[in-house]
Structure formats: C-alpha cells, structure tokens
Amino acid sequence: MKHSPLDRFKKGVKSWETVLLGLLFAEFVIFGIANPKFLMPRVLLGSVNDIISICIISLFVTFVMITGGIDIQAGSIVGLSSIVIGVTWQDFGLNIWVAAILAMAVAALCGALSGFFVAYCGVQPMVVTLGGSFLYSGIALLVSNISATASYKGISGFPDNFTQIAKFKLFGVIPSQLLIFAALTVIAYLLLHKSKFGRKVFLVGVNARAAEYSGINSRFITLLTYVLSGVSASIAGIVLTAYLGTAKSDIGVTFTLPIITAVVLGGTLSTGGKGSVIGTALAALVIGVLRFGLPLSFKVSNQYLDIPVGLLLLVVVVGRSIAANPTLLRKLGIGKAKGQKNKA
Amino acid sequence: MEQSRNSAPGALLSVRGITKAFSLNAVLKGIDLDVGSGDVVALIGGNGAGKSTLMKIIMGIYQPDGGELFVAGEKATLGSPTAALARGIYMVPQEPLLFPNMTVEENIVVGFSEKPAVLHRRLVELMEENGWELDLGRKASSLSIAEQQLVELLRGLLRNAQVLILDEPTSALTFDEVESLFKCVENLKSKGIGIIYITHRLAEVFEIATHVAIMRDGIITLSGPVGNFDRDMLVRGLLPPNMETQADKSINEEVSIDYTGLPPVFELQNYSGYGFSNVDLKVYPGEILGVAGVVGAGRTELATTIFGRDKVLGGKALLDGADITGLPTKKVLAAGINYVPEDRHLNGLFKISDVAANTTSGLLDQKELGKFFLNVKKEAEITQKYVDDFRIKITGQDQSTGSLSGGNQQKIVIGRALSTSPKLVILDEPTRGIDAAARGDVYNIIQQLRNHGVAVMLISSDMEEIVELSDRAVTVFQGRINGEFAKKDINQDNLMAAAFGVTGGKQVQQ
Amino acid sequence: MNTLKKITKIREINSLFFLIALFAIVGMVNPAFLSPTTLFNCFNDSVVFTLLATGIAFVILTGEIDVSIGATLGLSAAISSSLLRDGSSWFIAVAAGLLSGVVVGLINGFGVSTLGIPSLIFTLGTNGVVRGMIYVYTGGAWVENLPANFTKLSQIKLFGNLTIFYLVVLLAVIAAHIALTHTRRGRYFIAVGDNAAGATLVGIPAKRTKIIAYVLCGVLASVAGIIYSSRIGFITPTAGNGYEMKAIAACVLGGISLSGGLGSLLGASIGAVIMSSVSRILVFLGFSSDYDNTITGILLITIVVIDALTQNRAATKSRHERLAARTGPAHAKKGGAAK
C-alpha cells in the first residue's frame, strides 16, 4: 500500500527531533569555532540559567497546544507565583517551602479557571488566556502592594536552603536548574507519551467529539492541560525567584512569545493533535543557545536577538509547509510569472 | 457512448476525456459526460470513485490534467469558480456552505454587483414562481438542512444557472422535504435547466432521473437513458468485475430466536428526548434489532441520548435491569453499551492518529491497558486481533486512519465499539459510504456478534440491510416507534410503508 | 418591543450601550468624570488604539490573526520619525512609514494566505523579525528631537475638545465601516471569515481578500505609528510592545468574534475607546493605576464568557427546537398511534 502524505509527514515529525538535534549541534560547532569560550563548561552551563524558565514552561504548554488550545497567560503566572512566595514568606511569616507550595496551588487555580472557561464554556483559548494574562499580572501587582516592600524593589533575603535549589551545582559544574529541567522533561515525556492521560490528550486534540464517543471526558482533560501549564509556570517562578534571590511581580512578562515559539518550533501543530515533549525541549534549547551564542560569539547585541529567532521560526514553518505540499512551489512559480492578481 | 472529442449537439455541458491525478494517485482516468437541457443525469458511484473531484473540476475549483470541457457547445477553460459561475454552472454542495452569521438574503446575494433592491425583487419573484416560503431575514445558522439546501439552490437560480449540480441532496432530508425537492427538480427540468444529480440511492434514480451514469474507480462504467436500466444492472455497474453481487447468503441462517422466557438485556420505557418521544423498546441478547426509518426520524438522536450525549426528557433506560437513564457516556460505556456513530468522519475517527490509537480509544479507562502507563504491548495485541478478525487492510498499526479506505475505517470504529465487550452494541448506518466487499465483512461481523450472545441494535436507512440482517425490527416515524415486526413480517414493503408513516405495521406479541 | 430586540441583536449597539453605561456609572460615582474635557479625552487618547483595532479587525473578520501590529507600529514610527528628525519633508516621511506597513502586510498575507501557514505562528515570526529590524534601523537609540510643528499636530483641537487626529480617524473608520458592510467587495471580508470554503464556491476570492486584509492592517498600524510619534514626541525601540494584545482585546470588547465572520469596524473602535479609557476610569473611581490590568482582565474574560455562553445557548436552543419539530404533535401518554 502506498504511504500517504500523512504517513510521510508523521515520519517527518519524528525525524524533526533529529533535525533539531542537528541544529543544536550546528550551533555548538559554529559558536564554538567563533569563540572557543563558548564551549567552556563553566560558561556554557552558566548560560542555562537565563533560559530554563522558558524551557520548563514550554514543556507543559505543549500539552495545551496539542489539545488545539493556546496559553498566553503563563508568563503572568510566573510573576504571580514569585510575588506570592515573597509576600507570604516575608509579610505573613509562612515557611518558605509552604509558600512555594501555596504559589503552586494558586497557579493551579489560575490554570483551572481559564481551563474551565475554555473547556466548559466554549470560549476561545486565545481570548481567555489573553484576559488571564492581564488579570494575573494585575493581581500579582496588587499582591505586591500588600507587602511592606515597595513593588519595584522586590522582596529579597530568602533563606539559603531555598536559593540553593537554583544555585546548587552537581559535581561543581552542572547547574541545578539544568537538572530540574531534565527531571521535568522526563516527567513531561512520561506523562504525554507513555501514560494513558497523555494518549487522551492527543485524542482530544485530534477529535474531541470522537474522544467523547470513546468515553473520554474531553472537557476535563482539556481543563487539566491548563492546570499543568499553570503549575509549570509556578515552578519556573519558584526556580527563577530562588536564582535571582528576589521575588518580583513582573518577572516572566516577556516569556509568552518565546514559549509559543519553542513549542511550535518543536513540532507541535497549532491545530492540535500532534506534538512532542522532546521536540519542545530541544527547540527551547536551540532558541536558548541561539540567544546566548550570538552575543558571545558574534558580538550581536541583545536587542537584535528577536530577528534570528523570528527568522528561524519563519524558515522552519515555511519549510514544513512546502515539504508537506510540494505543489505549492509549482504554484508559486506560476503565480510569480503571471503576477499576483489571478490568485483567487 | 460517444467517443468523439466534440461536444454532444445541444448539450449544455459536455466533458471529454477528463483526467486528474493527485500526486501519484490517479482519481479520474478519462471521463466523458453530457448534460442536455432538461436532463437529470443521476451520477452514482461509491466513495473514492471520483465524483466529487469531477464536480470540482466542473465548478472550476480544480483544473483537469487532461481532457476538455464544453459549455453550450463552446470549449471552455474554467480556471476558477468565478469562471464557472459566469458560464452558468452552479453546485449545491452536499453540506450547504452558507455563511452562518449572515441572513438568508445576504447569503444568496453576496457577490452580485447589481443593486440590492433589484436583487431583492428578483429573489422574491423567483421564490414566488417556485412556491417557496422562506423568511429572508433569518440568520443562516438557524436554518434546517433542508432550508439551507433551498438557499443554496436559490443562489444558483438567481445566477441564472443553466447547469446545476446537486450533490446528494436528500441525504439529510426528511420525507416531506424530499418530496419538495423532487417537485423543485421537476420544475427546473421543465425550464430546460440541466441537472447532475449525485446520489447513493438507487430508488431516487428511477423516480427522478432522465439519464444515469455510474462511476467506479475514475471511469464511467455505465451510462445512458434511465429507461435502459434496471436496479440490478446499476448495482452490477458499481461492483468491480468478477464480484458476486449476492452477499454470502450462507451465513444468514434461517434460525429464529426462541424468545420464550428470555428477559431483555436492554429496555426503554416511555423514553423521551430531543428528537424522539415515548419510546418503548426491548432488545434481547443474541438478537439483531433493526431500527428502520427515514433520515431525520429520530433514530440517531435516540441512540446518542441513550449513549449519554444528550439530555433525557423523560422515561427510563435499563440495561440488565440496572437503571442507566441519563448517565454520562463514560458510565454508559462501563455499564456495557457501546455505539458506532453515524458520521464516522465527524464523530468516530481520529484521522491523524494511527490504527492502534483509534482501535483502543474506548479502552483507555479500563485496567486492560494499564493503570497509569499505557501498556503498548497489550494495545498492539488488541489492535492486531481486530485487524485479523475483521480483515482490515493496513500497512501497519502505525498507519494513520485518515489514509484508509472507508470500509477499513468503519471496521476500526466497529472494532473499538466491540473492544469494551458491551452487552448491547448500537450501530448507526454502519455501511454508509463503504464498498461492497467491506459491507459483506461488516455483515459477517454483525452476525458473529449476535451468535455470541451480544444484543445488536442496527440503525439503518438501507431497507435491504435491515431485511437481510434483522431478527426483529422496529420502525421509527417522526420520533416515535410506529411499528414492530417479527422476522417473518420483515420485508421492504412493510418497513418502507411504516418508515413513511403509513401505519398498519402489525404489533408483535412477545 | 420587536424593534428593541432587533436593535440589541446588532453587536456594535451592544458595545455602544456598554460604553455609555460604563461612562454613566463612573459619572454617577464621580461626577467630575462627566466633564467635557475628560470625556473627550477618553476618545482623543484612544486614537492610536482605534487605528490598531480597526486594522486588526479586518484580519480577524476574515478569520485570521496578526500579532505583529505592535512591531509594525514601532517600525513605522521609527522610520517616519527619524526621517522627520533628519529634515525630510512630511510627504516622504509619511510615505516611508506607510510603505513599511504595506511591506509587512504583504509578507504576512503571503505567508498566511498563499503559503497556508497558521496565522498566529507566522505573524509571531514576523513580529520577532520586525521588532529586531527596529533595533537595526535605530541602532538601539531613541529617536528624539522631532520637529515641533509635527508634534504640535497632535494637540490641535476642533470644536474645543476633539483632536483633529481623532476626528479624522473616526470619520475614516465610519467610511471604512460603510464600505465594509455595503459594498460588494467590502462584504467579502466577513464572508471569508464566516465560511471560507463557501466563499470560494460563490466566486469570492478568499485568498486575495485575506492578503488585502493583512495589507490594510499593516497600513493602519503604520498610520498609528505616525500618529503615535506625533503624540508622544519620541520613539524608543520598544514602542508598541504589547499593543497587539490590547488591540485584540479591544476588538473582542467591541463584539468581534475571534473565529471570524462576526463583528464590525465600528465595534472595534468602540472597544478601543473602552480599552484605553480603563485607566482613566479607574483614576476617577479612586483606584490607583495598579488596578488597570486586573480590571482589564476581568472585563475581557467576563465579556467573552457571557458572549460564548449566550451564543452556545442560542445554538443549543435552536437545535432542540428543530429536533422537537421533527417529532410531530406531542402525545401525553404512550400508546398513541402515529399519524
């Protein structure tokens, strides 16, 4: 029997992870040659700290996007979690670990609220999470106002055993953040690709009605993906707070677009039903390394970094589109010759 | 059949030698077709025969790889729908493609350049001529399917279409609506408009068509005036050569079920919901209960409500004595009922997922597939069992179901329904849109089920199917059961009459 | 009563009612809000968002999205301002700014419509690239020292309180709205968003319409950038950051459905006024500006949830009615024979 384009595409996605791995490898080679300092373990592993938050959240936003949804409130939840920890620890005297758990619970609630509106009220995910991004960043600001400390300053002075979770280095080289990311990658992988829950997530994303007819509670599964995403944002918030040593309400506000970029770059279809944790993890690393390597090895200043990331996304997405539909090229060739007017 | 490369004289539309291939897949292998003024050409063909591709070429949505089109005797290149519309060709799609948020009138006149007042007048005149009543100010999203089709028809007529393509126009209509449609078609015929009428229903062909053409596998196997053919000839034209036209009769033993003292496994008492009311029904283990009726009678709504997809308005549903009224789908499944949806594309298949995922999707809450982690080995075993038992043709368990033929897709959905070992299986139009060979396989499966003591509710609009398979039958008319038939009384006349509301169906004493 | 029902079915009237009600309530709490200066300023200050929301409304109505308009605003602002600062004529500066919007719009239209790439993803990519281009163009520096007669333009008022900018924009929006709803080509946008396949079948050039929508969006965003320059007086490389989200929120508040095919430009402009008035309203209600985001979020979510619930309820109701109609006359007890 012939392999349909669908089958070829499926195989394509699987090997997409190989492509990403190749990209990562190429980055190492290029940046390493341009500036050998790039390859020094201390430098390389040290860079990780700036990007891990985005990587962590991307893992779980993958779940949301597989169900055909999107989550643009995760960035705001990061700040909310951070400030909740700060305020409850400093101004309410809560034990720091209890404060962290509380932050995770709050995040779960935020995710559940949006997930409820998406799954049970039928509201579009983009709008709900857009509203959520305003709401939760607003609440974060209000929470920080409760504190005695001025919000722009941020709350600091956390106990060492807390900040250690982000500063600890295994064997003196491997940063704890990387370990946390690795652990979460494993958890996300098992959850999405090996568990029955993960299978349900995929099925809901491919055809929610057929999932219902198979006895799967599509709506609840969808809600849960938003909860997962929210909790992952709070974990990122906890780790970031520990790393910076300061709790602020506005950290994470710029994370949204990089997160979505990482998930899409990782092979997840925005229409749902297809995605991969490994792909997302690799893509997040590719983006992170790109943003680190370019300034270090090519003296590209930070402000210009959006261009290569944006270009990478465009190239990948356009390339995938053409690969899946080769007649497009022919059409383009004809279209260009005759001028654009006849393209109905 | 003419082999000349010229248009047939006087034909409104002629196509000659049309070929079309997608990637390596040749869909049309040389089609010749003529539509004359006042003709109704019934175009019949199974799924994958290439009908919709041919229609899209005529509508200018696709361009043919080879061959020619002639409109009113002149050679024509239809590069876009606008070109086809300009030439007076219009297609009423099977699923009306209206703009849900616009009103009826806006839907009809969108794209015209004349003044709205002028168009309004023409539209009103057109409707009066045909005796149609429709509130032009209603939002399209509130229309019934029949009303939507009417709007699509009006679009074509307002454009002074000379050639109308009707794609399975009756598939979603009630009996009255079908009659209305036929009247409309006669009217159009008398005006000299040429119609291509795509249908699966052989009965309609003899009722309304002037010519018939059968498509199979990208070619036309039979064509000519409808008077030259009878049903058997048409059926033979549909099947691949060297294929037995009779399904394997040996399986259908004339064994009657002994109902004495047998308690029903499933019972509905005065059961009401959206689309049906006051239904009393019993299904016994090891029997096939045929549920006949026309499209829109309420059978699917009955099934989906039993299955927990819609609200129960009254009455009770009992499975083996346990009350399962109003339970959510998950619990109904767990209790022992499963359902093969009417529309497998919409509600049954996970097209981009693979065969294994599709087959086992109903088992994800059972322990068989593992507690937390998915037992991939078990999944493969279960899937293989169905692949083997049902003779499902796949390249591997990892093949995505979207690329399978209709028959194989349907077998997978049936397999999934059976994987939960239900006591009652409800099959809703299980052989719709699948080829004859797969149909035979499905009949086998259904009879095996029955032989194993499972109760089967077979909902079908295909009277022959009901007659062939059922041990008992009920007919549903306008949401109510209006006839119950024992095996000896099950025949097409009785069923057809009752399905169309003509009472006289004898009550069966249990 | 029927006319009232009919009127409330028009979504932009609902948004207008909401705006009026909102202003009225705030006025009741703090009558100082109802002073002509304040009220007019609510409109005057919404001019940039009105342009952005109207532009993105074209795209959303066709069923797509564009998250690059903030960056387009920034690019156009940077280009036109720096040209003005360096002594170019207004004509050249404005033309250059508009051109940048057209180019971005064409690229977006090409990617989404011709290549068929999901619009969120593609415009996400162009957003990144355009954002970076702003840095490349300005070298990371601010653009300042704009000619005074340019910046003064934003202050010119007519009828005492309405800036000429807002007046012109409002008239343009009204004209565009009429074109969209009453001309044949204008109706194409909504048709494409309502049912793209259906649109093709009746001969509407769906792909071309989407490209035009993106170009219009880009142009309006670039105009917004020029007006923004005049109002603010200097351009930072992060100008326009996050504006796309606010513009989308404005559209939603104005009754535009993100799935396309429903809503209007007037609605978008009303939503823009609501969005940009939130912080001013909060001040008059005695809340610090810290509450801005929270209130905006609550507003957005509430409106969108109510809208979804009412639409779902209406759809379910009509489906149930249709099904009930099929069952014929009701019988109270079983045993009644069918007709």
Structure commentary:
The complex is a heterotrimer of chains A (344), B (510) and C (339). By secondary structure, chain A is mainly α. Chain A is 74% helix and 2% strand. Chain A has one domain: ABC transporter involved in vitamin B12 uptake, BtuC. The C terminus of chain A is likely disordered. Chain B is 32% helix and 24% strand. Chain B is built from 17 helices and 20 strands. In chain B, the strands form four sheets. Chain B has a six-stranded mixed beta sheet with strand order 6-7-8-3-9-10, sandwiched between helices. Chain B has a six-stranded mixed beta sheet with strand order 16-17-18-13-19-20, with helices on both faces. A four-stranded antiparallel beta sheet of chain B has the order 2-1-4-5, covered by helices on one side. The longest helix of chain B is centred in the middle third of the chain and has 16 residues. Chain B is globular, with a radius of gyration of 24 Å. By secondary structure, chain C is mainly alpha-helical. Chain C has 15 helices and two strands. In chain C, a hairpin with a 3-residue loop joins strand 1 and strand 2. Chain C is globular. The interface between A and C is large, with 52 and 54 residues. Chain C: InterPro entries: ABC_transp_permease (IPR001851).
Low-confidence segments of chain C, given as residue ranges, are: 329-339
Helix content estimate of chain B: 25-40%
Please give the CATH class of the domain at 11-238 in chain B.
Answer: Alpha Beta
Strand content of chain C: under 5%
* Cα-atom radius of gyration of chain C: 23 Å
Q: Tell me, rounded to a whole number, the average pLDDT of chain C.
A: 86
Strand order of the largest sheet of chain B: 6-7-8-3-9-10
How far the N terminus sits from the C terminus of chain B, by CA atoms, comes to 56 Å
CATH level 1 class label of chain C: Mainly Alpha
Number of individual domains of chain C: 1
Average pLDDT of chain B works out at 84
Fourth CATH level, the homologous superfamily of the domain at 11-238 in chain B: P-loop containing nucleotide triphosphate hydrolases
Gap between N and C termini of chain C, in Å? 38 Å
Count of DSSP E strands of chain C? 2
Spatially, the strands of the biggest sheet of chain C line up as 1-2
Instruction: Please identify the structural class of chain C as seen in this structure.
Output: mainly alpha
CATH fold title of the domain at 11-238 in chain B: Rossmann fold
Proportion in β-strands of chain B: 15-25%
Q: In sequence order, what are the helices and strands of chain C, one letter per element?
A: HHHHHHHHEEHHHHHHH
